Amino acid sequence: MTPMAETVTPSSTSGTTTELLESLDPLLREWLPRQRWFAGKGRAVTGFDLVAATELLPSEGRLGLYHVLLRVHQPPVPGALPQPGDCYQLLIGVREALPPRLAPALIGHVVDGPLDGRTVYDALYDPRPAEVLLEALRTGARVGALSFERDPAHEIRDQLVARLMTAEQSNSSVVYGDTFILKLLRRVTPGVNPDLELPLALAREGCARVPAPVAWLRADLDTEPYVLAVLQPFMNGASDGWELALRELAKGEDFTREARELGRATAEVHTALARALPTVTLGHAQLELMAGGMTERLTAAVQAVPALRPYETGLRSAFEALADLAREGQTWTAQRVHGDLHLGQCLRSPGDGWSLIDFEGEPSRPLAERRMPQPAVRDIAGMLRSFDYAAHSAKTPAPDWAHACRAAYCTGYAEVTGRDPRTDPVMLRAYETDKAIYEVVYEARHRPEWLPVPMSAVRRLATPDLS
Ligand SMILES: Nc1ncnc2c1ncn2[C@@H]1O[C@H](COP(=O)(O)OP(=O)(O)O)[C@@H](O)[C@H]1O
Ligand SMILES: O=P(O)(O)O[C@H]1O[C@H](CO)[C@@H](O[C@H]2O[C@H](CO)[C@@H](O)[C@H](O)[C@H]2O)[C@H](O)[C@H]1O
Predict the structure, then answer these.
(1) Fewer CB atoms < 10 Å away: N or C end of the chain?
(2) Where in the numbering of this chain does the Aminoglycoside phosphotransferase domain appear (predicted)?
(3) Is residue 467 part of a domain?
């Protein structure tokens, strides 16, 4: 690959980029809602605002490349207050025609403006533009509002070949030569992003359970910067916990040894986070607020997915029990947590055991909420739900397998922290219930064929005697 500096003269938003976006408007209205990472599914796209466009390779060449931040206008979610619209990050390539290997990346053919007759596509599918990003990170480039920054302690080799990951994701990731992985966040918000903040804090603490950020991309647009992408070492040969669990389940194999190790790894990360970042004590007022938030999410979820209605009262009792304990004066320690921990966020390397990735939190929650200290039990509840998810998505549901893994996970956690999460049943049930409700909404929106999996948990959690 030729380094960017030798081949392009990057510029920020220009007349060409503004006109490009005008001619792209009808194409993006059709293409964007079809993307896995598009969060506004189910609501029409009524228009766009260009937040920023940066030319990375000039469109006069054989290959044009634009970095684009786009605010999408959509009607508000029913019952919710009107919001400004989500901002998405796109890397748009421009070519005369697409070679067949890039067919899945097609956005469309431009029919007017300066690029009339040219083809535009999602450039992350294309090694060359993806390599332009790595080169910019390697050299610490600044282009328009974009700052490519790196931790000088890590070396980034050049000439690494890029390939887009094909996994189902909320964002998009590119692997470079099996050495690094770049996660390009798709829906972006201004402010400190926990997906960079927490791994950096853990790296400073010397916690080896999380790959340390090597470089990142920022945009300085509003008063607060946007974190747009994070580069980390690629754990070559690692398997994700979800795949491993399903494989063992299919063979009827025990997974408790792995689950216990995973409990230990989670505990190590929690301990390091509690050392690295402030902890607080949650008293009566905060706990009532927390239980109230869970109840509100339940109400919104029932509106979005009416199949939840018969279970609403039973589910709500989990949150009422939490509020009752708060009123009795019980307090909890809160700390920074992962926020969306499940088997798919755990990678196991043959030599190094388990690592945790993806500290973004639940993508649909506001950033400020995701960054708040919370009881560590929240992550544990996420993992317990995940063992249940695996067991209930298998051809033949395997509740005993889930039960054994859940117990082993808690045992492993207790071995490191000295505190068994099962001694906290009210908080655990409240968080498991909250998570299962989140999953119902998530699946209804993104993968409707998966809906029966969290719904089976909803039935059990609404009737605790069944669990
Ligand atoms: N450091 C890494 N090494 C190897 N694979 C990784 C690494 N980070 C992420 N992955 C792979 O990429 C996938 C998506 O990463 P993730 O951070 O969960 O993105 P998203 O937020 O889009 O879901 C993971 O499921 C995992 O398979
Ligand atoms: O990995 P993401 O940050 O994108 O998380 C979202 O998608 C997950 C699915 O890909 C979803 O997780 C749910 O399904 C998993 C199996 O695919 C299972 O392991 C999890 O336990 C279950 O919650 C996650 O909730 C969502 O935020």
Answers:
(1) C
(2) 214-416
(3) no
State the residue for tokens 């359970």. 209
Q: Distance between CA atoms of 349 and 126, rounded to whole angstroms?
A: 28
Using the mean position of ligand 2's atoms as its centre, give its distance from the Cα of residue 47 in Å: 29
**Ligand 2 centroid from CA 316, angstroms:** 23
Instruction: Return the beta strands (E) in 260-359 as ranges.
Output: 280-282, 332-334, 346-349, 353-356
* Ligand number, closest to the Cα atom of 402: 2
Q: Is 385 in the pocket of ligand 2 (CB under 6 A)?
A: yes
Compute the distance between CA of residue 94 and CA of residue 61 in angstroms, rounded to an integer: 9
**Same domain (yes/no): 222, 271:** no
CATH of the domain at 328: 3.90.1200.10
Whose Cα sits closest to atom 2 in ligand 1? 234
Look at the block and give the residue holding tokens 């494989």: 247
The answer to whether residue 54 is domain-embedded is yes
**pTM of the entire predicted model:** 0.91
| Nearest ligand 2 atom, CA 438 | 25
77 lies in the same domain as 37: yes
Least confident of 9-18, 170-179, 323-332: 9-18
Number of domains in the chain: 2
Tens of pLDDT, residue by residue over 287-325, are 999 999 999 999 999 999 999 999 999 999 999 999 999
Assigned domain for 129 exists:
yes
Spacing, Cα 357 to ligand 1 middle (Å) = 7
Q: Are residues 22 and 61 in the same domain?
A: yes
> In this structure, what token pair is assigned to residue 221?
């647009």
| 309 & 420 share domain | yes
Do 123 and 148 reside in the same domain of the chain? yes
Index of the ligand 2 atom closest to the CA of residue 388: 21
Pair (51, 182) in one structural domain: yes
What count of other Cβ atoms lies within 10 Å of the Cβ of residue 186? 21
Ligand 2 centroid – CA 437 distance (Å): 13
With contact defined as beta carbons under 8 Å apart, do 124 and 184 qualify? Answer: yes
Domain boundary among 233, 255, 273: 233
- Beta bridge partners of residue 146, listed in sequence order: 143, 219
Q: Is 439 in the pocket of ligand 2 (CB under 6 A)?
A: yes
Enclosing domain of residue 34: 7-233
pLDDT tens digits, residue range 321-339? 999 999 999 999 999 999 9
**Could you give the ipTM of this predicted complex?**
0.96
Biggest CA-to-CA distance, the chain: 70
Please report where in the chains the tokens 């979800």 appear, as a residue: 242
- Considering the domain architecture, whether residues 37 and 55 belong to the same structural domain is answered as yes
Q: What is the distance in A from the centroid of ligand 2 to the CA of 242? A: 10
Of the pLDDT bands very low, low, confident and very high (cuts 50, 70, 90), residue 10 is: very low
Q: How confident is the model at residue 41 (pLDDT cuts 50, 70, 90)?
A: confident
Q: In the predicted model, what is the mean pLDDT of residues 134-148?
A: 96
